[in-house]
């Protein structure tokens, strides 16, 4: 009797174990597909992988209205092969790359959920400017050095005027009845960075409010920007004063040496941020935001998995690189067909595409009353382009055998300095409204009009 009862108990345990195993296989088809010897389990895993792929495509491709411009990329290739009309190829390629640049930023943000705040902040800063770097490398391959210089300069101008202006305007329209206020530390940080550089360049006296309480992070960032100013100004001064030891060679050698030093400084800065200032990229809401929200109020979570983010980053980067080849090849033809200076195309049109991710992020955070993050996106991206993007392109051109240097023409340099001056004075008060945003956008329109009537002087 006892043995019979014991046997029934074992039978019941075996039955329950097998049923539990079947349930676990249904819940974890990927694990079952790897471990189970049955073809049915493998089919379930394949079906689930297909459904996950469809879900990922639906989220990444079909969840944003801007992605309606994606088909223009293949249309640009078709027009290039059938008609060869450079104007239309350039315009369609420009439209096709715009949503890809925005989705590249989206994939980076999704990956940042899994890497943590510090590495995520650095990933956003790096891949946020990936489109500009890809276009610049393709332009270097074609020997279009001035296009590279002007497009990188245009990216800085676009971030500081257009992106920040759109963020201020959008946030001001949403919160029209009040004046948005920056976080005190962030305002001091960014205003000090910019104003110190203007003081050194224009001999403008610093306000008393910025002379005190400057934190170590502000000093580090201002030092980086001052080093960038040195790297850009010295070759131009050497060229304009005709004081080169070896005419035509010393300027290039100085630019390459300065670029290597700037890249080393940027790498040291990243190490410093990762090791010594690990809380630099912690979201502001975790410590308290100007709007009084806390971390518990944000229910943001990743929409795709880590490996899906990596795959989408690779796919978007490859497709942007492929379309950039058609875009760069059509620049000169589009300039002739539309009777538009190449300088306008390089400084105004190309950076608007490359800064699509910054546009979306800055506006989104400003409309959530998180202007500190919007400022970090706009000003931080400008700093990264000047400290990493420009010297990186000089080194890549050196490897390719192209004589790219840091000698930006006088007109471009003057536009950059005046832009920094305007942004610095608008940020000094630590407040924002829609009128300040409108001022920045109108200032960008003046810059665009200036480059529309600007051509490079003859080399002789």
TrEMBL record:
Pfam families: Na_Ca_ex. InterPro entries: CaH_exchang (IPR004713), NaCa_Exmemb (IPR004837), NCX_ion-bd_dom_sf (IPR044880). Residues 87-274, 309-451 form the Sodium/calcium exchanger membrane region domain. GO terms for molecular function: calcium:proton antiporter activity. The chain crosses the membrane at residues 111-140, 152-176, 188-206, 218-238, 253-272, 310-328, 340-357, 377-400, 406-427, 434-455. Keywords: Antiport, Calcium, Calcium transport, Ion transport, Membrane, Transmembrane, Transmembrane helix, Transport, Vacuole. Residues 1-20, 283-302 are annotated as: Disordered. PANTHER family: VACUOLAR CALCIUM ION TRANSPORTER, VACUOLAR CATION_PROTON EXCHANGER 2. This is Sodium/calcium exchanger membrane region domain-containing protein. It comes from Eucalyptus globulus. The lineage of its organism: Eukaryota, Viridiplantae, Streptophyta, Embryophyta, Tracheophyta.
């Amino acid at each position: 009797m006892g043995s019979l009862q014991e046997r029934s108990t074992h039978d019941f345990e075996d039955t329950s174990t097998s049923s539990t195993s079947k349930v676990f296989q249904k819940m974890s088809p990927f694990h079952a597909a790897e471990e189970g010897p049955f073809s049915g389990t493998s089919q379930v895993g394949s079906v689930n992988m297909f459904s996950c792929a469809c879900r990922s495509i639906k989220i990444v491709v079909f969840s944003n209205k801007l992605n309606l411009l994606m088909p223009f990329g293949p249309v640009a290739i078709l027009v290039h092969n059938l008609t060869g009309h450079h104007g239309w190829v350039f315009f369609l390629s420009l439209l096709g790359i715009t949503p890809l640049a925005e989705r590249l930023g989206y994939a980076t943000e999704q990956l940042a959920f899994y890497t943590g705040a510090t590495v995520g902040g650095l990933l956003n800063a790096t891949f946020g400017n990936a489109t500009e770097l890809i276009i610049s490398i393709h332009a270097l391959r074609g020997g279009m050095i001035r296009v590279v210089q002007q497009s990188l300069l245009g990216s800085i101008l676009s971030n500081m005027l257009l992106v920040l202006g759109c963020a201020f305007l959008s946030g001001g329209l949403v919160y029209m009845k009040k004046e948005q206020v920056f976080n005190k530390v962030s305002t001091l940080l960014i205003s000090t960075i910019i104003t110190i550089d203007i003081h050194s360049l224009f001999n403008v006296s610093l306000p008393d409010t910025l002379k005190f309480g400057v934190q170590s992070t502000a000093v580090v960032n201002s030092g980086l920007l001052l080093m960038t100013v040195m790297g850009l100004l010295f070759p131009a001064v050497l060229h304009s004063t005709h004081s080169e030891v070896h005419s035509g060679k010393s300027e290039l050698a100085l630019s390459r040496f300065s670029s290597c030093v700037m890249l080393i400084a940027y790498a040291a800065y990243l190490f410093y941020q990762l090791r010594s200032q690990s809380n630099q990229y912690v979201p502001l809401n975790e410590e308290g935001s100007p709007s009084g929200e806390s971390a518990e109020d944000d229910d943001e979570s990743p929409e795709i998995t880590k490996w899906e983010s990596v795959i989408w980053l690779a796919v978007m980067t490859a497709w942007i690189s492929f379309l950039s080849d058609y875009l760069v090849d059509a620049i000169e033809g589009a300039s002739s067909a539309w009777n538009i200076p190449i300088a306008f195309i390089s400084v105004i049109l190309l950076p608007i595409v490359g800064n699509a991710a910054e546009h979306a992020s800055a506006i989104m955070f400003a409309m959530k009353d998180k202007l500190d993050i919007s400022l970090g996106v706009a000003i931080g991206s400008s700093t990264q382009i000047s400290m990493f993007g420009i010297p990186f392109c000089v080194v890549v051109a050196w490897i390719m055998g192209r004589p790219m240097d840091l000698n930006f023409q006088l007109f471009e340099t003057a536009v950059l300095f005046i832009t920094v001056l305007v942004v610095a004075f608008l940020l000094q008060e630590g407040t924002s409204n829609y009128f300040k945003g409108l001022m920045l956008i109108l200032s960008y329109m003046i810059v665009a009009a200036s480059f529309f009537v600007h051509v490079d002087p003859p080399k002789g």
